[in-house]
Amino acid sequence: MKILVTGGAGYIGSHTIIDILEQGIHEVISIDNFSNSDEKVFDRIFEITGQRVKNYNLDLTDYQKLKTEVFEKEGKIDGIIHFAALKAVGESVEKPVHYYYNNLNSMINLLKCTQKFDVNYFIFSSSCTVYGNPENIPVTENSPIGVTESPYGYTKVVGERILEDFATTKSNFKAVALRYFNPVGAHMSGLNGEFPKGRPNNLVPVVTQFASLWLSELTVHGTDYETRDGTAIRDYIHVSDISHAHLLAMEKLASQSDYKSYDIFNLGVGQGVTVFEVINAFEKVSGIKLNYTVGPRRSGDVEAIYANNQKARTELGWNPKYGIEDAMKSAWIWQQKLNAAMHDDKVLLS
Ligand code: UD1
Questions:
Q1: 172: buried, middle or exposed (CB in 10 Å: 19+, 13-18, 0-12)?
Q2: Is the overall model pTM greater than 0.70, yes or no?
Q3: What is the three-class DSSP state of 18?
Q4: Predicted confidence (pLDDT) per residue in 52-77, tens digit
Q5: Is residue 202 part of a domain?
Q6: Nearest CA to ligand 1 atom 34
Q7: Catalytic site residue 11?
Q8: CA 347 to CA 339: how far, in whole Å?
Q9: Tens digit of pLDDT for each residue in 107-133?
Q10: Which residues line ligand 1 (CB under 6 A)?
Q11: Residue 42 belongs to a domain with what CATH number?
């Protein structure tokens, strides 16, 4: 297959490209405008796989360019894995129209191209944020869609709906939405990982940057939740495990002609981990004690969510390999590589 990955320079997109190239069966091309990433990601992909990926630096909201500069030039594309999107929850609250415009138009333009250029398979990057604050955990794919706290979250809810409506009316087209829980960690080689532009908000990059003295504070947001140690519970899933599920889903759609036109899968380890347990795992693998402070709850945070991942295991044959310690270890090796690059003054990524 020839697979187009949008957001190929991003955190999960780049790991997915690595996974596809390492498998060595399919051809892959990318679209990324580097709005929250860097072109040097493709050097790292080359370092790991020995292969150069063609990337189109293009804004997906520009339908004309997408059509003429990518689809008309590339010839037959079999499948699309669509990651490219704005994803900062807080920013989406401040700039809702920007988020709806970007994330939904990108999706719609890609779907128009699948129609015009006969692309048959589509994988969409969704999120467990669609469950809101769930009443029952673990959540299954049948758990109700909840009240999502942010415009970012609604772009995932609406994106799923657009895709489902499209897939059920277009013949020869199959689509899957993958609902990620909390993607963490780095490629096990330590050569590729997350490098958010600006100050990170997610727990793991905050932890590794705090341990590297890039950040002066690590605040635990809330210790008064009704959980085993008072901190919030999430399902932290290694980025390489998440990435591999995309390849499995794409191959499922391509190989099983009677497969349903639209499906959804949870991608989580299936275990809830508290904030303190993440911190402990980091301390254990790094040998560094974290002098964190305790703060109030962060607005919009849910108390506890983790996945029932049985459907992805059974239907996709997905077996997540890594646990929280592997994730923290790889994230820490990656962070140390960033530290060394900064120290040598040959800035690795930007
Ligand atoms: C967030 C997004 C989610 C997105 C996910 C991955 C929200 C409401 N949800 O999930 O849509 O898919 O990121 O990008 O923002 N924490 C601290 N201190 C910190 C940072 C985080 O205690 O400095 C805690 C949080 O309060 C939370 C847990 O760590 O309990 C995980 O937070 P985070 O990594 O930001 O992910 P989510 O909020 O679960």
A1: exposed
A2: yes
A3: helix
A4: 999 999 999 999 999 999 999 999 99
A5: no
A6: 202
A7: no
A8: 9
A9: 999 999 999 999 999 999 999 999 999
A10: 89, 127, 129, 149, 182, 201-203, 206, 219-221, 232, 234, 275, 298, 300-301
A11: 3.40.50.720
Q: Quick check: 303 and 223 in contact, CB under 8 A?
A: no
Residue type, 167: A
User: Coil, helix or strand for 174?
Assistant: strand
**How many structural domains are present in the chain?**
1
| Active-site position among 56, 152, 180, 236 | 152
How much distance in Å is there from the Cα of 202 to the middle of ligand 1?
5
222 in a structural domain: no
265 pairs with which residues across the strands?
A: 178
> Strand (E) positions, the chain?
2-6, 27-31, 54-56, 79-82, 121-127, 174-180, 182-184, 219-221, 233-234, 236-238, 262-267, 273-274, 293-295
Nearest to 286 by CA among 203, 191, 212, 349: 212
**C-alpha–C-alpha distance, residues 175 and 164, integer Å:** 8
Q: How many whole angstroms separate alpha carbon 283 and alpha carbon 289?
A: 6
In a domain, 344, yes or no: no
Tallying the residues shown for the chain, one arrives at 350
